Amino acid sequence: MKIINTCDTIKTLFADGFDIRTWRKYANGISKELPAKCENDAKEYDFEKNVLPVLNKALQADKIDLVSDSFQSVTATLQENLSKLFDKEPDINIILYLGLCNGAGWATTLDGQDTVLLGVEKIIELDWGDETNMCALILHEIGHLWHKHNGNLHIPEFTKRRKGIAQLYCEGVAMVCEHILCGDDDFYHQDKNGWLDWCYKNENEIKREYLHRLDAGKSVQDFFGDWCSYNGHSDVGYFLGCRFVHFLMKTHSLKEIANMKYRSLNKAFAEFANTVIEPLAIEDYHKCANIWNMLAQPLADTWKAEIASGTRLVFVYKINGEFIGEGALVLHTDDPDYTIPDKRVYVSRLIVKKEYRNLCIGSEILAFLIRKAKESGYTEMTIGVDKDNTAALHLYRKYGFTEVLFDGKDEDGEYYKLMKVCH
Questions:
Q1: Where are the beta strands (DSSP E) in 245-401?
Q2: What is the DSSP secondary-structure string of 158-197?
């Protein structure tokens, strides 16, 4: 792996502002292919209006030094992260350079060598010059190169639908790779001003709208790029792509996903887009009977009344309209065993139909319940678990629940009471 930082050269050559002839010589010094590559990529832009102002605003020594320092710090320890995904050090070049607004990150090939190009001007424009964002940029582009070497990175894009599926798929795989490398499944450098919370809260709407645009043959560009937005939020497609790949990972390894073809991806996305977690409507209550197996009628009537009043919140997991599982939150109860203080919510139910178990659906429902509790202002969650239910205990402890009470008794024997602090 070769690391190239051209920031000192940038400061020297462009101390008096940007000049295209000087830039061509500079880019040619990095690679004879680079000038034409960048100019061809940027030819659809209005250079004077859209590119030159960004370049001149970025050509300030203090801003360039900040980006350079972050780059040096991140790349110094990069190999430690790469070992989580690569069997050996990848043969790639990572170059911090001045582009023509070609992108903050660009996984490409120069002189036959896999290369990650990091555009100083875009990094400065987007305020991504700190170490956290620098690391995310590098790992994401390396994720694209991992995909290239382990599967099917390039899908022919001769229709808008194919282009929309391909872009979502490729960015999704890169996002999952980035999460593996940085060790955080919820890290998105786009997450500012509640971006990620908004994405999770509106996930059902986002994926249905994306599918609608694919079906209608419309562009999905609003979901990608800092210059575009969907409902006022940029780069929503990166979140959606990552969620799509996680959906695929229920039944496939990441390498299998990396080799999937368009036809399989197109079919899988339609299923993913029609897989939702949403509040249970009272009129659908009895449709859940086959999941609940069924509650005794007096208790079922009580639950139905609690759902109607909002005391018990039930969220159902559906695939193409079929009820697959559900999770329930109790906001308050008169049961002395489950007295709930202010700001604590009780998880009263988490179940998945037998034929759909071991597909991480229970994990997905639990993660949803945790987000819903935090979103509603609750700071603690409590759940009772049979002490012999090792699978459930493993799941809850994985999500941060800890034992707070033992030796409680119910009609079946002993159980644990577990609690999670919702940060």
A1: 275-279, 312-319, 322-330, 344-352, 380-386
A2: -SHHHHHHHHHHHHHHHHHHHHHHHT-TT--TT--TTHHH
Alpha-carbon gap, residue 356 to 210, rounded angstroms: 26
Residue 263 tokens read as 């036809």
Instruction: For residue 348, give the amino acid letter.
Output: S
Q: Find the domain containing 286 and state its range.
A: 276-421
Distance CA 237, CA 199 (A): 10
Structure-token match 């030159």, residue found: 52
Give the model confidence (pLDDT) of 31-40 as tens digits: 999 999 999 9
Structure token digits, residue 136: 């995310």
Q: How much of the chain is helix, strand and coil, in % rounded to 5?
A: 50, 20, 30
Task: Encode pLDDT of 330-360 as tens digits.
Answer: 886 555 555 555 678 888 889 898 888 888 8
Q: State the CB neighbour count (10 A cutoff) for residue 119.
A: 26
Q: Where are the alpha helices (DSSP H) in 342-410?
A: 361-375, 390-398
Report pLDDT digits (tens) over 218-251: 999 999 987 889 999 999 999 999 999 999 999 9
* Residue 319 burial class via C-beta count within 10 angstroms: exposed 0-12, middle 13-18, buried 19 and up: middle
CA distance 72 to 89: 18
Contacts of 48 (CB under 8 A, 6+ apart): none
**Residue that has been written with the tokens 């990620």 in this structure:** 196
| Dihedral of alpha carbons 159, 162, 167, 168, sign | positive
CB 300 within 8 A of CB 294: yes
pLDDT at 417 over 80: no
Tell me, yes or no, whether 204 and 136 share the same domain: no
143 and 33 in a common domain: yes
Give the pLDDT confidence of 47-74 residue by residue, as tens digits: 999 999 999 999 999 999 999 999 999 9
| In a shared domain, residues 265 and 299 | no
Sheet holding 105-110, edge to edge: 2-5, 93-97, 113-119, 105-110
Domain co-membership, 283 together with 327: yes
Which one, of 11, 238, 229, 33, lies nearest residue 120 by Cα?
Answer: 11
Compute the mean pLDDT over every residue in the chain, rounded to the nearest whole number: 88
Q: Which of 1, 7, 35, 2 is nearest to 96 (CA)?
A: 7
The tokens of 50 are what? 């859209």
pLDDT at 64: 96
- Structural domain count of the chain: 3
